[in-house]
Amino acid sequence: xxxxxxxxxxxxxxxxxxxxxxxxxxxxxxxxxxxxxxxxxxxxxxxxxxxxxxxxxxxxxxxxxxxxxxxxxxxxxxxxxxxxxxxxxxxxxxxxxxxxxxxxxxxxxxxxxxxxxxxxxxxxxxxxxxxxxxxxxxxxxxxxxxxxxxxxxxxxxxxxxxxxxxxxxxxxxxxxxxxxxxxxxxxxxxxxxxxxxxxxxxxxxxxxxxxxxxxxxxxxxxxxxxxxxxxxxxxxxxxxxxxxxxxxxxxxxxxxxxxxxxxxxxxxxxxxxxxxxxxxxxxxxxxxxxxxxxxxxxxxxxxxxxxxxxxxxxxxxxxxxxxxxxxxxxxxxxxxxxxxxxxxxxxxxxxxxxxxxxxxxxxxxxxxxxxxxxxxxxxxxxxxxxxxxxxxxxxxxxxxxxxxxxxxxxxxxxxxxxxxxxxxxxxxxxxxxxxxxxxxxxxxxxxxxxxxxxxxxxxxxxxxxxxxxxxxxxxxxxxxxxxxxxxxxxxxxxxxxxxxxxxxxxxxxxxxxxxxxxxxxxxxxxxxxxxxxxxxxxxxxxxxxxxxxxxxxxxxxxxxxxxxxxxxxxxxxxxxxxxxxxxxxxxxxxxxxxxxxxxxxxxxxxxxxxxxxxxxxxxxxxxxxxxxxxxxxxxxxxxxxxxxxxxxxxxxxxxxxxxxxxxxxxxxxxxxxxxxxxxxxxxxxxxxxxxxxxxxxxxxxxxxxxxxxxxxxxxxxxxxxxxxxxxxxxxxxxxxxxxxxxxxxxxxxxxxxxxxxxxxxxxxxxxxxxxxxxxxxxxxxxxxxxxxxxxxxxxxxxxxxxxxxxxxxxxxxxxxxxxxxxxxxxxxxxxxxxxxxxxxxxxxxxxxxxxxxxxxxxxxxxxxxxxxxxxxxxxxxxxxxxxxxxxxxxxxxxxxxxxxxxxxxxxxxxxxxxxxxxxxxxxxxxxxxxxxxxxxxxxxxxxxxxxxxxxxxxxxxxxxxxxxxxxxxxxxxxxxxxxxxxxxxxxxxxxxxxxxx
Length: 997
Known about the structure:
This protein is mainly beta. Helices cover 9% and strands 31% of the residues. The termini are far apart.
């Protein structure tokens, strides 16, 4: 006993000395109430045939604690949570009280602290709502190990979680102690602020009211978040991540001036890189959060980590990539983040530190790495603590030496998990160490390690398993308890390497940040400054106020689109879902053009009743443009590297989410981008190749034909949609379709083709080959309709037995196949298209492989080339068939800039465009709010796709004046902007500084 007490005393003294040694650096952190104590579970069980009421005192209420993560981002986490400033002398001051001021009906959680560049302010979020007691379902064997198995039902525990109904931003002045806040709007979540300038924040918000992508075979959406920016006086609000169609979370400013953030990438085929054991199904969707970067104004978004890597197995740094979240940058430039399995693990797992690659590079060559898990992984990655695994299970048993933690009598039995990295001076890293099991997914490894028999009900999740396991251990240790520590060694070999900063058993301490000037950590006063996109470009095609941007590439044949291992013979979880998206085996000579596709956000209730497609959003073709360039003598133009030039430069509406496809001369897809992008007004975004993210490209864009004066820039979004229509000699034919974007939908566009060309054979009671193309009445999504049989029938129930093909799961087909007839996003690989075209079009033969789908006998049709083009594009765009596929949900572009003369605003240039239904010119409203005056409305019609000027009779000199404008498209979608005169004067381009004539 004396030896034990001495060990405890020495351990505590050591921890106290460590904390004192750290006291030179003040920190701010959030602390959330942790469930402590025990719970008396009472119920009636049957033991040896005898029913009896029993009570058992259970440990481990904190097993049910939930902390913010990608799944519990808005609500449902343990609360209340205070924001605490820990001074340099170790004393603490609560910056924002929630624990003492919350009630069951009016509670809060103060989270997400970030420190200003001068170290004088702390920005943070406050989530508001009601507290709800945790309810848990218990199994009879939690009460008695020999009880007959049965469910004891739900029990109300003392633990509480916040049912949030909104969040708003706050700023705390460290010296004065005063806190100011953005007005709270119920239903709006403004959170995760970060300083991007001395007086400006970036943050994530739901205020755009979009919903997340509708993953194929799901029927639910979550609120979408996009990155906004706002001044610290709550003026000049701006949406910057227009590309985001699901969620972006917790941005941070990097030293190079870019903003890093966690992005939920679930478009199209990305969720289908694994099936989770069910043919045709998707992987764990919430794990698809990767790290992206962009300029503060939203220009140039690009993947930093995880977008094209991850293979359900460890990468070379020792961990499997799951959800990447919660970031910090160290003094040496490394970006550290948590990587964890969503939902079940309190946002805790491993901490990974990455050295960012050069601009335009993502990581390792997918064709040269030894294991698929290393594809596009950055070349320099450090696993901060290999003992902190990030899989979906409890932490590993603790290895020697014995380790005690403050407030617990017994030594820790589990290594725990890590999260919430924070940067400190001198390249030091602080983090939250979650001591205990820290998962709801149990196993009996600890009993095996201790040489004890495993009791019943210590495997799996739910039913009281976690509390049962801890109670059987009968030790004074936590189920999960987060505290803030310093990493003394990287990589850490044991939890004893961690030094205590602050850790109380009453709280989970998370999200720590050093309250010091930026220079104390990074050696410079603030991050590098990246000018706004329109200020970096000086071209006549992008005049001040333009609603358009320019996108280009030096080559579409310098590419890394081929899947690792090649295009699969038949089924593959990786083809089109992970690294490469080539649809068929093809030569570069077949790459003829690029297709620009606008992706419209999901809005409104019951999205699953509106759309039914495999992209997850409504999509529209903005245009298709050829990339085959010929000189006057008829020979191909060659680029400086000696390859045929396939460069392009396009103009199309800014602030519009888009993806690109490489297409052949008939407009059929050969490869597809699956990461949302956008252009900001006036932005020119170019690259050297197509998805070349592991190496320098053969040439740079300025060396290409598209960058020369001889190139004519195609203009999309001007009322006509160009479409490729074959090749005659050296000329790629195009045809024009009216509109600002071309959508294709089953009943309007595909059914008439079937009716005209197909149902005479594929109709009636005995359709040819069992394929009925005339079952098109009612909802397309109803079982056994034509659309359902073509798109949803991966089990081949619509196909007669003699025509069924066998896959790796018998007759149940996996991706990329949707059914026997359609391959996802791949008309040239789809039997339906082959039969319409009367030829196999994937550059293979029926005899080439024994285990794929064959074309079979000749199939004569009188379908026209234009009808074939509609059919191929329908397949390549994701087979839309929902009731409201044609609805326009994309907001119009509105770019408002000032004209300046004699240091005053003399007028405005107003650029408008729309990628959906087109601008309503009469909807433009311009309103000037001079201080203490009502709106001065200045009537002006908008341009359908261009710029109008508005001269002011009296100029604006008062910097406090606010100017608001809004415009609608013909579908009623509205975009509003509101700027102060100071903002407009500051952000005017030099060539704007001319008074209007």
